[in-house]
Amino acid sequence: MPALTAAILAAFAGYAGAWYLGIVEGNFALLLFLATVVTGVYWVAERLYFLPRRRAAADGIATQAEERRTQLAAQGITQVDTPDVGAARQKLLMQPWWLDWTAGLFPVIITVFVLRSFLFEPFKIPSGSMMPTLLVGDLILVNKFTYGLRLPVLNTKITEGTPPARGDVMVFRYPPKPSLDYIKRVVGVPGDEVAYLNKRLTINGQLLSKDPLPDFLDEDTMGYSRQFREVLNGRTHRILNDDRQPAFIPGADDFQFKENCRYSVEGVVCKVPPGHYFMMGDNRDNSLDSRYWGFVPDRNIVGKAFFIWMNFGNLGRVGSFE
């Protein structure tokens, strides 16, 4: 067992190292699931097989010592060297290293697995596409049950939950490459006609309000962007526009249901198909979103982002957001 365990741990370490170096495309959900299964098997084996064997061996040490004392006493020998039975029993009862690194970690790993798979998952914001709502370096929590519970790894929905609504900030699997997680705002739900023309958003023929705010300073680039207050589905959030960027959508990919979209020099108009969502970043002129790669199918949904739990560069960022 020590050799087998060493090989299993080496395989996990090798996979993690290759992922870190970019040699393979990692899948943390799969890695955590496999770690839960492997450590769970060791935990069960420890409880049902290895621990009873160690206890039996420890009890045997005590029994042998008692039998030896009884035999010597029967011969009239009372002054004998008494071995430290307690220390010997303790040594026999200790988990070997290969069980410490498997069965011993199972309670922690399964707790993380359950929390991450069905309740809350942490994410780090990697880009500025959701500025000013979310900044690079924000560490956020994603609610995994609001939109319905899903099986880990497979992402198959097992409960209905509440459908995503316009204005929600949602994490999803990037449709062109589902191994990547993206975060954007839900702008269109199934059946909506979404128009983004001349940098104005219209939903089902209704032009959304866009009230000017003081310019926004991006402290990373030390550049300013025009900032506006937008009301979507009765919920207020801020957006950015860059006057240097054109209104038309350059380089849109081919994607499923692209025939539902009409592109022009003014922008794009799309009819959201059933079971799909139209997503946009709040940093409207610096966001690779549904305007470029299409609609997000329901099966790609990960969860609803709702809370910034840390930003090491700015502790004032901690809190909820719209």
UniProtKB/TrEMBL annotation:
Keywords of the record: Hydrolase, Membrane, Protease, Transmembrane, Transmembrane helix
Q: List, alphabetically, the GO terms of the cellular component aspect.
A: membrane
- Reactions mediated catalytically: Cleavage of hydrophobic, N-terminal signal or leader sequences from secreted and periplasmic proteins
- Top-rank taxon of the source lineage equals Bacteria
Active-site residues annotated for this sequence: S129, K184
Q: Which SUPFAM superfamilies match?
A: LexA/Signal peptidase
The kind of enzyme this is, by top-level EC class, is hydrolase
Under the GO molecular function aspect, what terms does this record hold? serine-type endopeptidase activity; signal peptidase activity
Q: Name one GO biological process term.
A: signal peptide processing
Q: How does it sit in the membrane?
A: Single-pass type II membrane protein
Q: Which residues form the Peptidase S26 domain?
A: 99-310
Annotated membrane-spanning segments are 28-45, 98-119
Chief location category: membrane
**What family is this protein classified in?**
Belongs to the peptidase S26 family.
This chain belongs to the protein called Signal peptidase I
Quote the gene name from the UniProt entry: lepB
